[in-house]
Amino acid sequence: MGRLLKIIRKFLLIINWTTLGSIVVIIGSILGISLLVAIFLHFLINRIFGYSGNKDLDYKDKVTAKAKELFNRYKH
């Protein structure tokens, strides 16, 4: 255990914290840009294929209305 702590301590002394910060910033930027591209493509594809997120809700409303109609028709 003591040997591991010595290795970790040596690594922390050797590492250049500015370099580490730069690497973190670069990775964060790549992830952020990827997220923006994914969101843009999502909306672009939805626009191209004419998909509306409310179609499922409309369908559920129609089914619910039909179920209520049948229930009211056949209830005793």
Distance linking N and C termini: 78 Å
Helix content: over 70%
* Number of E-type strands: 0
How many helices in DSSP terms? 3
Radius of gyration: 29 Å
Q: What characteristic shape results from the CA principal axes? A: elongated
Number of domains: 1
Biggest sheet layout: none
- Report the β-strand fraction as a percent range: under 5%
Q: Briefly note the structural class of the backbone.
A: mainly alpha
* Unreliable segments of 5+ consecutive residues: none
Give a concise summary:
The protein has 76 residues and is mainly alpha-helical. The protein has 3 helices and no strands.
Tell me what the structure shows:
The chain has 76 residues and is mainly α. The chain has one domain (19-74). It contains three helices and no strands. The chain has helices at residues 2-14, 17-49, 55-74.
List the helices and strands and how they pair.
Elements: H1 2-14, H2 17-49, H3 55-74
Name its key features.
single chain; 76 residues; mainly alpha; 3 helices; elongated
